[in-house]
Design brief:
The chain is built from ten helices and seven strands. By secondary structure, it is of the alpha/beta class. The strands form two sheets. Strands 6-2-3-4-7 form a five-stranded mixed sheet. A two-stranded parallel sheet has the order 1-5. The protein is elongated and about 90 Å long.
Length: 278
C-alpha cells in the first residue's frame, strides 16, 4: 500500500539531497548494482542516480511529510473553495456592471412587457401587483447607477481578495494563512447578520465552513502565537524532516557507513528493502 508521501513523489518527483556532513551523507547514500542511490527526503524511498541537490544540511529542502503533508492537503481544499468563491463574486460583479450599463433599456422593456403580461397573469390566477419577485426586480431596475457601480466594485474587490487567499493557500504561504484568518473573521459578523434576517442551508453551510477554517488555521498552523507560535510550528516541521530523523538516528550508533545493496533495492536500518527508483 503506497503512502501519501510516495503518491506525491509519483506526481512531483523524488527529492534527493547530498549533505556536506559526511555522517549524514553516508546515511542517505547506498550502492546498488545500477550505481549509487539516494534516499528521498519526502517518501524515504531509495532513488538510483545522483542527488538532485548538494550543500549543508541546514540548507536542505524540507518537503512536507507526515502531519505537514496532511495539513497541506487541507490547505489546498480551502484554496479550491476560495478560488471557486472568487470566480462567482467576480462573475457577479461583471453581471451587475453589465446590468447597470443596460439599465435604461431594461426599464423601458420592463415597462412595456408588464402591462402586456397582466391579462395572461390574471387568467393564470397570478397577482402581479403583489408579486415579491416583481417588487425586487423593480427595485433593481430603479436603483441608482452609482449604487450599482459601488456594489460591482465591492464584489470585484472581495472576489480578488478571495482569489489572492486561494492562490496563497495553494502555495502554502504563511502570509496567506494570516490573511485568510483576518479576512474571514472580519466577515463573520456580516454573515451572522444575514442569517438573522433569513436562514438558508447555503448561508449556514458557508458560515460553518468559515468558522472551521479560522479555528483550524489558528490552531493547526499556530498563528498569532497560538500553541507556541511560529517557532513551535517550525520546530514541529523540522522534527518531521528525514534529515533530522537520520541525524538523530546517527547519534545512536557508531557505524553509519554507506550501504551496499543489490540491483533491486536498498536496505534500511530496520531491515526493510524498498525498491530503488530511477
Amino acid at each position: 500500500m503506497f503512502s501519501r508521501e510516495l503518491r506525491v513523489c509519483g506526481r512531483a518527483g523524488h527529492i534527493t539531497y547530498s549533505p556536506d556532513e559526511p555522517h549524514l551523507a553516508e546515511r542517505l547514500r547506498a550502492d546498488t548494482g545500477q550505481g549509487e542511490a539516494w534516499r528521498c527526503l519526502r517518501c524515504g524511498d531509495w532513488v538510483v542516480g545522483s542527488p538532485r541537490g548538494r550543500g549543508p544540511a541546514d540548507e536542505a529542502p524540507v518537503p512536507a511529510r507526515g502531519k505537514a503533508l496532511r495539513q497541506l492537503t487541507i490547505l489546498r481544499i480551502l484554496a479550491v473553495e476560495r478560488v471557486v468563491r472568487a470566480l462567482v463574486l467576480i462573475a457577479a460583479a461583471y453581471g451587475i456592471h453589465r446590468f447597470a450599463s443596460a439599465q435604461r433599456s431594461l426599464q423601458d422593456s420592463f415597462g412595456r412587457l408588464l402591462p402586456a403580461a397582466r391579462p395572461l397573469a390574471t387568467r393564470l390566477g397570478l397577482d402581479l401587483d403583489h408579486s415579491s419577485i416583481l417588487r425586487e426586480a423593480e427595485k433593481a431596475l430603479h436603483a441608482r447607477h452609482g449604487t450599482l457601480t459601488l456594489l460591482a466594485v465591492g464584489l470585484l474587490l472581495y472576489g480578488l481578495l478571495e482569489l489572492v487567499e486561494g492562490v496563497g493557500l495553494w502555495l502554502a504561504r504563511r502570509w496567506a494563512e494570516y490573511l485568510t484568518v483576518v479576512a474571514t473573521a472580519a466577515f463573520l459578523p456580516l454573515e451572522i447578520h444575514e442569517m438573522l434576517k433569513t436562514v438558508t442551508v447555503t448561508k449556514v453551510g458557508a458560515f460553518v465552513i468559515n468558522v472551521l477554517a479560522v479555528v483550524y488555521l489558528v490552531l493547526a498552523k499556530r498563528l498569532f502565537g497560538a500553541r507556541g507560535g511560529r517557532k513551535a510550528y517550525e520546530h514541529e516541521l523540522g522534527g518531521e524532516s528525514l534529515l533530522a530523523v537520520e541525524e538523530a538516528a546517527g547519534t545512536g550508533d557508531d557505524a553509519p557507513s554507506g550501504r551496499s545493496v543489490g540491483m533491486t533495492g536498498a536496505g534500511t536500518d530496520e531491515g526493510e528493502r524498498p525498491m530503488a527508483h530511477r
